[in-house]
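Quick check before the chapter quiz. The format below is the same one you will see on the exam, so make sure you can read both the input and the output lines.
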Amino acid sequence: MTILPLVVIPMLASLAAYAAAKRSPYSAGLICALSLLPLLAVSAYVTFSGAELREGPLEGFNLTAFRLVPYNAIFALTVALVGIFVALFSPPYMEHRSHEVGMDTSVFYLTYGFFVGGLAGAFVAANLITVYVFIEIALIASLFQVLYYGYGDRVRITVMYLVWSHIGAFLALAGFLLLCLRGVYYVPLLAGYGRLGADYAAFLLILVGSLIKMATLGVHMWLPYVHAEAPTPLSALLSPVLVGIGGYLIAAIGMYVLPSSEWGEWLVYYAIATAVYGGLMAYLQRDTKRLFAYSTVSQMGYMLLGVALMNPHGYTAAALFYLSHGLGKAVLFMTAGYLIMYVHTRDIDRMGGLYGWRPELAGAAIVGFLNLAGILTIGMISEIVLTVAYAERFGTQYHYYVPYALMLLVTAIYAFNATRLIFFGPHKREDRGPVDIALISIVALAFISVLLLVPPFSRLLADNIFSIARGVKLWT
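Here is the expected output.
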């Protein structure tokens, strides 16, 4: 057994982190971070080497079947990478938050490993029912974190999160069960299936359930509330890595029962509309966490667009966007948490001039925004590959490039506007932000997102994922 322990270890380590948190959240955060190192090492090996790991035969109804190839390994890699640095970031923030809510941090660290382990398990599991079980583990763990450590009306927000997240999960499960009735028990992309034939019911159930998970246009209403009011370390995992699981489910399962190519065309329009709407709403926000939450809506539009283009470059772009969005948004949410701790506000209008207050923080946040805008980070690779996919789909039909250009423009505008409002302009503070493990974690994750742009990392990422996407039997 080589794959299942990778997702079980963080869950078991949460029990030790729970006990450690009674004495010190710093010890608990370190335990959670160390428990993710095996997952990081193995997923990085598969992603960058192009290797494959398999556990259990994909025959009959085997709930213990797992498979790692570069395509799903990059999702697991993102969970591990973000999970490690969020765990390291969390102690000073959770210590701050625990004083505000009047309870210790032990519940947060008890649930942390189950949350990240559940997310990783959903990506590496090959059996459809096992995928659902791991999604449920992650959802239930995160519910407790919102309930105990969230902001505002925590009970109402938790109920909202419970309802929306489980509607999405149950719809996807219903679609999985319909596939099981047809004898399809495994994630088609991991099992090497070709097109399974049109199945309207299964496709719509998986699609709608996954779109709710992604918080795309029209079913996004829950996300700005939940992600903005969740404790910031959870926000740094929810917004980048949890919502993206919907894109993975559509790519790896839903598109295999696509009723017709017209559905893919409508999904392209819908994805662009989601990206533009999310970007415009992000531009209008004056609360940092709500701004970042709406930018997630926009970025999910990018990911959905990659899948909807229905070609190898589009599938590659979707996976790369998950990585770039995961790194960039984790940096930005952790930045918001740092500002909550030491500036004591989420109100952008009360900020400004913070570059001089803590230049390292400003530099990392700028890198986070560059990830979203696709400039000089791994985000640039994902955006280039998406553009190639778009051109491959529409060729010389130049009128289709207008909405695509608008999508890119809106993202750049809200990203640079937020940078200007938060970090530049007249100085409003004479003190300096402290250098602590939270700041170090933010800067380190920002550095990694730039490092991944440099060859050979970017080349290996793109080539290995593309080799899997090209072999997907949807366009052969």
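If your answer matched, good. The chain is about 75% helix and 0% strand.
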